[in-house]
Write a structure and sequence with these properties.
The two termini are 14 Å apart. Helices cover 5% and strands 46% of the residues. The protein is mainly beta and 533 residues long. It has three domains: 112 residues, no CATH class; 230 residues, Beta-galactosidase, Chain A, domain 5 (Distorted Sandwich); 183 residues.
């Protein structure tokens, strides 16, 4: 009985060393439970796959499957922060805790620290620290009907916090101030429970301590807060919007989801900025006519959001709207597609998403790729197909609108530049609960191209296949305050075989040459040479 030997010959010593040092080198057999338990970098997830912790990135988790392949779950917002002391990526935890030593309420684990005043000491209302820079909100004031009501940190009495939210109740008459801590931003809500009195507009002002910082207000209304020495942005404050509590007919949303109906949103408010010494005074002036309209349903929420800039990545999901062609939507809690139409507006809504694929090793063989979203709401149960296209121009979350792809550059075609070839489509009609994720199969060759040439990755555009049909569907975005970890956030799952697998595999292509008593086969992707004798 003859035995056939399979020898793997590496072309050069350099390739040999690089492959055997590669973090993806594994046998073709499934990883046993014993092996998983003995590897501190592997975490049990299910009976079929385990997480490989040392392959984590800021926005991804990677799992080893039972057949030797890998699946990487990539999110469009950070889910990890790098722990300098432990020297690894760790899960973000936004839970707020009582710090008795500093007499503040603070977040648990992230690459920034935020502290909230408990109302018992004369310290800033909010203090946000990141990369050596500190942003302090010293006080909040309200000017209404000629009267000025001050509310600095020393006279706050009613404070409640739970999970990642803290609320200052009745900070002004019939007005609450609420902060929600997210993975990359602090969401601020001014909640008004009744219409303002008098004929003069209400002005909400925030005093920010600018020690070590400077500012720049952009044309779109955002405020950049810059490090004085490096001149690089450390934080920015989004242009605000507001919404009331009206629920249109035929609108449905999932329970416990913060989703705003299209007809309830207003951008009719100004944000004025004044600098005095080291203090930056920000005034929010909501449109008085809109607030006092008979159509308004209270409570009304005014939403400016403070974003902490990530040093190594962009945050990439947003909405663009035809009726508000210059309005950005990078901090919204949902991503929409379809058409909203009422007596005042006809508004197409589309969504942009982009995923960082750097967690996938170059030259890996892609098996599959799926885009996963979860419905937050629907307006009308009319069926539509939600189409996914490949964007052909770069864009930024903070600057993209219907007209522009970033702060200064217009799209070639309004509504987004995308390739004509449809990547994938899924039919939707009625609202589905959160136990069901909506999935689009993305062609393998598109993902393979993006991995091999990252500069071609501009992400996806989602739109209704029929933008004349009066229905829209919304999905939970990466900015949703209730789901700022991996639960229900937009996710791209890429499954692949890594380059470091040696020997014959049916997913590689080989160039075969006969030898005396055997065969020589060269892997055309990896360059590895295999000889059977």
């Amino acid at each position: 009985m003859k035995f056939r030997k399979v020898l793997t010959i590496i072309a050069t010593t350099i390739i040999f060393i690089s492959l055997f040092n590669n973090q993806f080198f594994i046998s073709s057999n499934a990883v046993s439970q014993k092996e998983a338990n003995n590897d501190s970098s592997i975490v049990n997830n299910t009976s079929k796959k385990v997480e490989v912790k040392h392959l984590r990135t800021e926005k991804s988790k990677t799992f080893r499957n039972s057949n030797g392949s890998y699946s990487t779950e990539i999110f469009d917002e950070p889910i990890h922060y790098y722990d300098e002391r432990e020297q690894h990526w760790t899960d973000i935890n936004n839970t707020l805790n009582d710090n008795q030593q500093s007499n503040t309420i603070e977040n648990t684990k992230n690459n920034y620290k935020v502290r909230f005043n408990k109302g018992k000491s004369n310290i800033p209302l909010v203090e946000l620290q990141k990369n050596g820079n500190t942003l302090k909100i010293d006080s909040v004031n309200l000017k209404s009907s000629g009267n000025i009501k001050n509310n600095n940190s020393a006279n706050i009495n009613k404070v409640n916090y739970h999970a990642n939210k803290i609320k200052y109740t009745n900070i002004f008459p019939e007005t609450d101030l609420q902060y929600t801590v997210g993975n990359s931003k602090i969401k601020e809500d001014i909640i008004l429970y009744q219409k303002p009195e008098g004929q003069e507009p209400s002005i909400y002002s925030f005093s920010l301590n600018l020690k070590g910082l400077d500012y720049q207000q952009l044309e779109d209304g955002r405020i950049l807060l810059l490090d004085k020495k490096s001149k690089k942005p450390s934080f920015y404050i989004e242009a605000p919007f507001m919404y009331d509590s009206s629920i249109p007919e035929n609108y449905q949303k999932n329970k416990d989801i913060l989703d705003i109906p299209e007809g309830a949103i207003s951008y009719a408010l100004k944000m004025d900025v004044k600098k005095q010494d080291n203090q930056l005074l920000i005034e929010l002036i909501p449109d008085h006519e809109w607030l006092t309209s008979n159509e308004r349903e209270y409570p009304v929420t005014i939403d400016p959001t403070i974003v902490t800039l990530q040093p190594n990545s962009q945050l990439d999901d947003t909405n663009i709207r035809s009726y508000f062609p210059n309005q950005v939507g990078g901090t919204e809690t949902s991503l929409g597609v379809g058409l909203y139409k009422d007596s005042a507006q006809t508004n197409k809504i589309r969504s942009l998403l982009k995923f960082d694929l750097s967690a996938i090793p170059a030259s890996s063989q892609i098996i599959s790729a799926d885009l996963n979203l979860w419905l937050s709401s629907v307006s009308n149960d009319l069926p539509i197909n939600v189409d996914v296209y490949e964007l052909s121009s770069s864009w930024t979350e903070s600057g993209a609108s219907w007209n522009k792809r970033n702060e200064s550059t217009a799209w070639t075609n309004k509504g987004g530049d995308y390739k004509n070839t449809l990547l994938s489509t899924t039919g939707l009609s009625n609202l589905l609960d959160l136990s069901t994720n909506i999935k689009w199969k993305i062609p393998k060759d598109v993902v393979q191209k993006w991995i091999e040439n990252p500069s071609t990755n501009h992400g996806f555009l989602l739109k209704s296949s029929d933008e004349t049909k009066a229905t829209y569907k919304k999905f939970i975005s990466g900015d949703h305050p209730e789901f700022s970890s991996t639960s229900y956030s937009p996710m791209l799952v890429v499954s692949y075989y890594p380059i470091s697998r040696l020997g014959f595999e049916d997913y590689w292509t080989y160039d075969y040459h006969p030898l005396t008593g055997g065969i020589s086969a060269t892997n055309l992707t990896t360059g590895n040479n295999i000889i059977t004798v």
